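[job 4471] stage=fold_predict status=RUNNING
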Amino acid sequence: MNGLLWAAAGTGFTFFMTALGASVVFFMKKQSSEGVQKIFLGFAAGVMIAASVWSLLIPAIEEAEQLGRIGWIPAAGGFAAGGAFLMLLDKFMPFFHPEPHRAEGVKQGLRHSAMLIFAITLHNIPEGMAVGLAFALAAKENSSVLLASAIALAIGMGIQNFPEGAAIAMPVRQSGAGRLKAFLWGAASGIVEPIFGLLTVLISGSVIEFLPWLLSFAAGAMLYVVADELIPEAHLEGSRLGTIGVMAGFMLMMILDVALG
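[job 4471] inference complete, writing structure tokens
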């Protein structure tokens, strides 16, 4: 019970920070110039690249090695599976298709927003599980040291989630959605963290084995969206604004991930 309560508080905080990041859309103009839109898309791409490396792939390798396995095998396998999954989803889900190939009646313009939301939401699942596992271990061992470590992890994850919430909400807003809708999409991407964090506490004994694969699977899915959608969309002929956005987003998430451990 203590583990559930602690995990609920920790993952509730990470969800709150995602929603707080998404709230930046309430201070944005309804429509910005094409250059600003490219910066927002580039920022989202940079955030996702850095999060894939420092929040997902490196922890996947470290977790696998702690379990006595070869670190790169689940990292590479899960990464490839995540990319392949998004590729298949892209192929078979009609609302992801460009207009000439889209099934009749499917709303236009949903492609990169839908994939962006899906990828970051998928990335939040193993993060919520990691926080849940940390609190489950602290409760099992009844250790104040492990509890402090779990709290620190939740705070770090929460701070990292702020730019991730913004990385969803800003491009959705720029695609023409209303402020409230963009905010709700950005905030909703973080709700999976408390859900999967609490589930992980309940089944903590069996989920540890699969965590490296889940982390790297999410990384592969995120990198697919970055390479296939965000970076091409952020390219602006005769300008480097999209590139600046990518580098700024990457640098911000790199600093947060490394500084917060």
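[job 4471] summary: DSSP finds ten helices and no strands in the chain.
[job 4471] exit 0
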